[in-house]
């Protein structure tokens, strides 16, 4: 696997990932308190670096740049906790920062705690906003199996450059791990047509 993107890592700054970091450059934003946290790990065969432009945002977010065959790739992940007021504003701010950066391909992952299966004006506004800025939302099945219903909280979006076919030579395998309150991990379903 080349790239891992993990939300709700439940890591704190004292947690050590030495066994994992032998083959990967690890970029993470931990929470001081319980829960949360985001992480992107890129195999050390690739030239990768943290994007500092996201550090000032008020969200749990990490951005990583990868250069592959002179192609600039941006991978970000954002966790928006359920109690966050106005999550759409966090997303707008994130997209504004992304649009100022100069990358050939942009991938945005995350647990936004917005149910994208819900038929509402609010959800449609978010989808329209993302599409207006060139992003395609790629997960279309439930990712959160709750006792009472299934929800789609976890998101994978991408914006591709016309040279996308060249980029397909780099196989980014996404292991997108989400932790429910019981800390059981499961793999999200991704619309595979982009690969």
TrEMBL record:
It holds the Pfam family Exo_endo_phos. GO terms for molecular function: catalytic activity. SUPFAM superfamilies: DNase I-like. The keyword Chaperone does not apply. Residues 2-115 form the Endonuclease/exonuclease/phosphatase domain. InterPro entries: Endo/exonu/phosph_ase_sf, Endo/exonuclease/phosphatase. Keywords: Membrane, Transmembrane, Transmembrane helix. The chain crosses the membrane at residues 161-179. PANTHER family: ENDO/EXONUCLEASE/PHOSPHATASE DOMAIN-CONTAINING PROTEIN, ENDONUCLEASE_EXONUCLEASE_PHOSPHATASE DOMAIN-CONTAINING PROTEIN. This is Endonuclease/exonuclease/phosphatase domain-containing protein. It comes from Dinothrombium tinctorium.
